[in-house]
Design brief:
7 helices, Alpha/beta knot
Length: 200
């Protein structure tokens, strides 16, 4: 790895946020997952959780929309809700779901500067009742149209960029959050991925 490439990789790793993650519950379309991955990479999220209890585990993601985003992320796949939840509870202080309900709060009233996991449900039925019962609350993206729903990748992007805005204003991107050995491990892994046009 050249010194220039190492410096570019470190500059990205130094912006990674270890206190915010996305959980995708039974999302069917791998292209939707890939689009979410690309947004995660764009706002500096390193960890992504893919929970599949109603469908089989994904073997690959939609290559066209991902622009190779998956290889820059740490993706955890689970088929057991309790196992996944145990890990999330050990790493994040709050878990919120996206769900249109009477107790849901407006996206823009959520404080994203804390440690948080955000759960997005599948394309047809959203977040399951089981997951919502285990979470700390729900939020919705305010909309003025007739159709009160967004594509999951769009909803995730809107949410993550509000989180990005808050965290950037709070100075979260001005301090390195990843610690050793994770930082060194990722730097080594990324260094073996070969030259990429994203780094040019």
């Amino acid at each position: 790895m050249t010194p220039e490439r190492r410096e570019k990789l470190l500059s990205v790793l130094n912006k990674r946020q270890n206190d915010l993650t996305i959980v995708l519950e039974n999302v069917f379309d791998p292209h939707n997952i890939s689009a979410v991955m690309r947004t995660c990479d764009a706002v500096g999220i390193q960890e992504l959780y893919v929970l599949t209890t109603r469908i089989g585990p994904h073997k690959k993601w939609g290559a066209k929309s991902s622009s190779s985003a998956a290889k820059w992320l740490t993706v955890h796949q689970y088929t057991d809700v309790r196992e996944c939840w145990t890990v999330l509870r050990s790493r994040y202080d709050r878990i919120l779901t996206t769900h249109l309900s009477s107790d849901a709060v407006d996206l823009y009233s959520v404080d994203f500067t804390g440690s948080m996991a955000l759960v997005f449900g599948n394309e047809h039925s959203g977040v399951s009742d089981e997951i919502r019962a285990m979470a700390d609350g729900n939020f919705i993206i305010p909309q003025q149209g007739i159709i009160q729903s967004l594509n999951i990748s769009v909803a995730c992007a809107v949410t993550l960029y509000e989180a990005y805005r808050q965290k950037k204003n709070a100075g979260h991107y001005d301090q390195r959050k990843l610690q050793e050995p994770q930082l060194g491990t990722l730097l080594d892994e990324w260094g073996f991925l070969g030259e990429d046009k994203e780094l040019d």
